[in-house]
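Students often ask why inverse folding is considered easier than folding. One informal answer: many sequences map to the same fold, so there is more than one right answer. In these notes we will look at a single instance of the problem. The structure comes first.
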């Protein structure tokens, strides 16, 4: 340790303090007049010992080897960072290529490598937004359960969420916009938007059923009355987002454009499929429940009728037989 300090002092200037001149602070260094310039000069450097000065090469091996120009540590471990700037905006593809290159490297024993920077930040953001998506779906389901007072109908309404995700991903693939954090935020927005159309439709159908209409007829009338309002709502939102989707927002397009594309694609697919698939599912599930209820009521009526006939026969048998008396 002492020899290393002497060599460092001989090779580099030493900081001894600072001075302020004209409101500017300067650092004061002391440099040696005989700084070793070659390997031979370094080997001949005199090192003071208890028996007197001796050459450095008599105490240590002086050789030229490759080594790091700086040493960084993280949590007590030596680390080295390699940066790469992707040539495109597709961070996912760039991260995959970098990961492939890292996997192909033969690392020394005990050394590990992992991706950081923007890739790590994006992975963390995806995880947090994934949790937010699940929580949002749960909250929407709880609200719909309280509204419809049913556990089954809200599940039918949530079918529109995967429909929205399908259209969002399809339009993003067609447009060539890479998947990123703004895209996931757009999917999070879609959960509340697309369920609204389904709620409007099913609520009117339930009102018609409450007036005594069967499931199929209530669906037909409800779909006819809610078709135009649902289409107008979806079209208004889509056309409002078109300027963002085609990149008219300037420098903020890297955030707003993916979000707008995801919302537009999700609205298109969810609106079309909600108007077609949701009534079919509602008819299959609720129609089956309605038919089951009708069979129960029919069996109950038949049992009541059978019990009435039995009581009538018993009453007839219990009446005394009248006739002439002797």
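Output (designed amino acids):
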């Amino acid at each position: 340790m002492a020899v290393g300090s002497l060599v460092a002092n001989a090779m580099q200037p030493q900081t001894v303090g600072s001075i302020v001149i004209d409101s500017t602070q300067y650092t004061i260094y002391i440099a040696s007049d005989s700084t070793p310039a070659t390997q031979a000069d370094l080997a001949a450097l005199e090192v003071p010992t208890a028996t007197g000065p001796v050459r450095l090469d008599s105490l240590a091996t002086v050789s030229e080897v490759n080594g790091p120009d700086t040493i960084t540590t993280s949590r007590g471990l030596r680390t080295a960072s390699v940066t790469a700037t992707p040539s495109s905006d597709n961070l996912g593809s760039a991260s995959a290529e970098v990961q492939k290159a890292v996997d192909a490297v033969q690392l020394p024993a005990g050394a590990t490598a992992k991706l950081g920077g923007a890739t790590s930040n994006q992975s963390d953001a995806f995880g947090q937004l994934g949790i937010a998506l699940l929580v949002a779906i749960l909250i929407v389901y709880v609200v719909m359960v309280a509204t419809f007072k049913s556990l089954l109908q809200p599940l039918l309404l949530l079918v529109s969420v995967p429909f929205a995700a399908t259209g969002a991903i399809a339009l993003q693939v067609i447009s060539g916009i890479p998947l990123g954090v703004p895209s996931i935020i757009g999917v999070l927005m879609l959960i509340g938007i697309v369920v609204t159309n389904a709620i409007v439709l099913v609520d009117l159908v339930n009102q018609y059923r409450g007036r005594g209409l069967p499931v199929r007829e209530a669906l037909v009338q409800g779909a006819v009355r809610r078709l135009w309002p649902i289409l107008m709502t979806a079209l208004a939102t889509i056309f409002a987002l078109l300027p963002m989707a085609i990149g008219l927002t300037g420098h903020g397009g890297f955030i707003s454009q993916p979000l707008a594309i995801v919302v537009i694609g999700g609205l298109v697919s969810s609106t079309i499929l909600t108007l077609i698939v949701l009534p079919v599912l509602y008819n299959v599930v609720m129609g089956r429940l309605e038919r089951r209820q009708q069979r129960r009521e029919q069996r109950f009526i038949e049992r009541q009728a059978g019990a009435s006939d039995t009581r009538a026969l018993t009453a007839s048998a219990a009446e005394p037989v009248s006739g002439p008396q002797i």
